[in-house]
Amino acid sequence: MVERQIARRGVRDPHVLDAMRTVRREAFVAPGMEEFAYEDGPLPIGHGQTISQAYIVALMVEAAEIRPGNRVLEIGAGSGYAAAVMAQIAEKVISIERHAPLAETARDNLAKAVVSNVDIKVGDGTAGWPGAAPFDAILVAAGGPSVPASLKTQLREGGRMVIPVGDADTVQTLLRITRTGADSWDEEKLGAVRFVPLIGAEGWTEDGRRSASSHVPAQNSGKTLPQMVAEVAEPLPDIESAEFGKVFDRYGDRRVVLLGEASHGTSEFYRARAAITRHLIEHHGFNIVAVEADWPDAAAINRYAQHHAGRESEEPPFTRFPTWMWRNTVVEGFSHWLRTYNATGAGNNVGFYGLDIYNMRGSIAAVLDYLDEVDPEAARIARERYGCLTPWQRDPATYGRAVLSQGYRDCEDEVVAQLRDLLERRLDYEAQDGASFLDAAQNARLVRSAERYYRIMYYGGAESWNLRDTHMFETLEHLLDAGGSDAKAVVWAHNSHIGDARATEMGKVRDELNIGQLCRERFGDGAALVGFGTHTGTVAAASDWGGEMEVKRVRPSHADSYERICHEAGVPRFLLDMRRDEALRRRLMDQKLERFIGVIYRPETELMSHYSDAVLPRQFDAWVWFDETSAVTPLGPEHRRDGVPDTYPFGV
Ligand code: SAH
Q1: Active site residue 52
Q2: Residue 179 carries which DSSP code?
Q3: Which of 60, 102, 219, 343 registers the highest number of CB atoms within 10 A of its CB?
Q4: CB under 8 Å to 156, separation ≥6 — which residues?
Q5: What is the pLDDT of the chain when averaged over all its residues?
Q6: CB 152 within 8 A of CB 177
Q7: Ligand 1 centre from 620 Cα, in Å?
Q8: Residues lining ligand 1, CB < 6 A?
């Protein structure tokens, strides 16, 4: 954990790295949660509180420059973990916790970990602990509206305080305050973080308001960002009009144009991508459409589009959750258009391919079917875990529900063996098809990586995400190579895949990469990354992995989001080209929230489960906006008319 999660992210202080290696994190997590102790995120410890992500603890302790011999004050003992880490370096740590039962647990945890130089006190830490002041360092493990004055005065001259400050329910800025004299302090910003609220006389009130003694920091006003967006944005014509695609002529000479989406169930995103793609095919010679779908399923659309024979005996494509993602009226219409276009012999024979891990959804469905039979409890947990395959979901409550995973561990070998059989059968079948794209090398690569995919997919996290996106990128490269030097591809995948991961929490905090980043690294300006967004409307999504599709209302965008700025610009549909105006680009470079809705949408926990920090102009070359959007119309097997055979995409 220390190497992977901490040192690689730039924590260098040898005291900190040693201390992190010494303290065993599992002694500080709630009973039953031990197997998650080393996961890269916060975990619940009761009373709605969390043990901080290990990396954040390391970052804060390093920033506080804790040295041997120091006296340290911590506000928010929680589990006692951070206090134990600091106690490895400092001479004495005093840690205040407002919840008495948590303080009791922290004491027990510290005793278990044989740490004896920490004193846990119960009380309101915003007042500090004057009896033991001054301190060489103060670490505040909860986010307040401002820096408590009492704490500033309890720092020794030269002493450092590290504290998150900002809005209680969004992101905070991590500050380092250094006392430079009797009446002077320096302040540095260390970056965006997210903490539970600091509740007390100089923090927030219990109901989330600013307490009387916390002063209001000056708000910086200035010109409005929405006005600037309104000026620079290019209004878009109706999606169905011929003019729509022309706005994207600027990307006609790229090798790869990546088109995103902010959900997997919004009609406008699909319709706009289909219109742009038709235009790029007809006018700029694009001949590959590569989408975030399973290869074998997309191959059925490809056979239809390229006038190859359909297959009778195969399971109909896209019949696994989430069916609406590729079985919807827009994709159906686009498949018909492709078939007609290819029949004209206009030059380029356009193919339609799936980039995702070969048969990923089929594999997940097979795991769930199997567990449903042998261990329904393990199946329930597996659904939860697969629901978290999305990197922006980090609701700690999810871990709470997914904790009993021993059931899966017991049958993992069995499951992986079954999946290997399933894959081999699929590939045998594919090999009988003369027109198959899969050559022996690609085939061997799939088999080689499959077992690894299957094992880590269940556990989620950065490694499975990175494997998946690397696979998507390699498949794209393979398609481009096979198409020769004239080959040009349009990619349809979620914003989280096609927006440069280095510009979001994914890359910055969790070491996750994605296909957009890999395309930029490989093709430079030969790749265009186009993100999509919306303010409100309806979306097709489920509440859990494998659940029913529902049409859900999308909540109006959050006040601190890029989406809110676009909404306030007051233009219903637009393209924002990030290179068009340098002043606007600079203003947009201040990190904000961005909304990510996948196949699962949970409006109840929207802020935690669907918003992530991002720097929009770094993430995308352009941003397509639809202020109000509506759900896709599904054509799932469950939606077909009685008695009509399911022939999608071939049926009319
Ligand atoms: N450092 C902890 C994580 C703490 S989470 C660890 O390593 O596990 C933040 C903690 O701050 C919570 O336990 C919360 O109860 C506590 N807290 C919030 N406001 C406080 C205040 N004013 N005084 C003391 N503790 C506070």
Answers
A1: yes
A2: E
A3: 60
A4: 134, 135, 136, 179
A5: 86
A6: yes
A7: 37
A8: 49-52, 75-76, 78-79, 81-82, 96-99, 102, 124-126, 141-142, 196, 198-200, 203
Question: DSSP 3-state helix, strand, coil percentages of the chain (rounded to 5)?
Answer: 45, 20, 35
> For a pocket test of ligand 1, which of 29, 57, 97 has the largest count of ligand atoms closer than 8 A to its C-beta?
97
* Sign of the CA dihedral running 73, 78, 82, 88: positive
Pocket test for ligand 1, best of 28, 45, 49, 195 (most atoms within 8 A of CB): 49
Mutate to test the pocket of ligand 1, among 60, 75, 174 (most ligand atoms within 8 A of CB): 75
Place 64 in a pLDDT band, splitting at 50, 70 and 90: very high
Return the H-helix or E-strand segment holding 231.
helix 225-232
**Residue with CA at minimum distance from ligand 1 atom 13:** 78
Residue nearest to atom 16 of ligand 1 (CA): 76
Q: In 3D, which of 386, 355, 304 has the Cα closest to residue 649? A: 304
φ and ψ of 94, to 5 deg: -110, 130
- Which residue is closest in CA terms to ligand 1's atom 10? 76
Residue 261: both structure tokens together: 């989406």
Ligand 1 atom closest to the CA of 125, numbered from 1: 23
Which residue has the CA at smallest separation from atom 26 of ligand 1? 76
CB contact at 8 A, 300 and 320: no
Task: Render 27-74 in DSSP notation, one character per residue.
Answer: GGSPTT-GGGTTSSS-EEEETTEEEPPHHHHHHHHHHTT--TT-EEEE
* C-alpha of residue 76 to centroid of ligand 1, in Å: 3
Query: CA-CA distance, 525 to 535, in Å (whole number)?
Result: 29
Sequence spans of domains, the chain: 2-211, 229-356+463-637
Among 383, 404, 270, which residue's Cα sits nearest to residue 333? Answer: 270
Instruction: Output the CATH code of domain 2-211.
Output: 3.40.50.150
Q: In the predicted model, is pLDDT for residue 218 greater than 50? A: no
Give the span between the Cα atoms of 214 and 198, in whole angstroms. 11
pLDDT tens for each residue of 236-277? 999 999 999 999 999 999 999 999 999 999 999 999 999 999
Distance 46 CA to ligand 1 centre (A): 11
Residue having the nearest C-alpha atom to atom 2 of ligand 1: 78
Compute the Cα dihedral for 105, 108, 112, 116 and give only its sign: positive
- For residue 260, the one-letter residue type is G
- Quick one: which atom of ligand 1 is closest to the CA of 78? 13
**Are residues 119 and 95 in contact, defined by beta-carbon separation less than 8 angstroms?**
yes
Residue 81 CB neighbour total at 10 angstroms: 27
| CA of 45, closest atom in ligand 1 | 8
pLDDT at 407: 65
β partners of residue 491: 258, 290
Class of domain 229-356+463-637: alpha beta
